[in-house]
Every structure is written in structure tokens, then in C-alpha cells.
Structure prediction request, 117 residues.
Amino acid sequence: QVELMESGGGLVQPGGSLRLSCAALGNGLSMYVMGWYRQALGKERELVARITSGGSSDLADSVKGRFTISRDNGKSTVYLQMNSLKPEDTAVYYCNAYHLISRVDYWGQGTQVTVSS
Prediction:
């Protein structure tokens, strides 16, 4: 089992940047794919980015070239660097940990990101 604690959300103007952090508490973290999802008001939750313990990552087409996901295995923390933010990036962002063997998902509590002038 893993517990996820997110931080870093907030209000930012269009074109601005934010960095989200997700600290994971638990054992065997190398067996988890870590990721970020988001859910805008009235919409379904969608994958933003994910990364393996080995550093392989993929990002949603809508954020490629603007967002970067990274992972510090020593600190058990995954980051989402968000640049050139747009109003359509406004959503609650959730940290996710997916266990490769059990196929169980764990979720953080979510952090609000609002992009507005």
C-alpha cells in the first residue's frame, strides 16, 4: 500500500508556470508507475503524464512541449513541471500510483490548479 501527498497547486495567469509535487509513502515503490491525472469541472478524469521507476515517461498530447514529469526515487517523489499554462489546464490534479503486479491504483487527495487572468 502507498500513501500519496500532493502539493504545489494554486492560481496562475495564462502563460505562467507551476510545479506539482507528490510524495509517496510506502514500500516497494519501484514497482509503481507514478502519474498525474486531472479532472476539470464537468469532465472525466484524464491522464496527464506518467513515469516508471526507470524514467520512461509519456504525456498526453495536449501537454506535450509544455509539461514535464520527473521522478526522484531517492526522495520517493514525482514532479509535474507545468509551463505555458492555459485556461484549459484548469482542473483538480491527482497523483496516482499504479502497482505493476497487483494492478491496484492509489490516489492522492487532489490539488486545484486554476489558470486565469
Notes: The mean pLDDT is 95. Residues 43 and 91 are 9 Å apart (CA to CA).
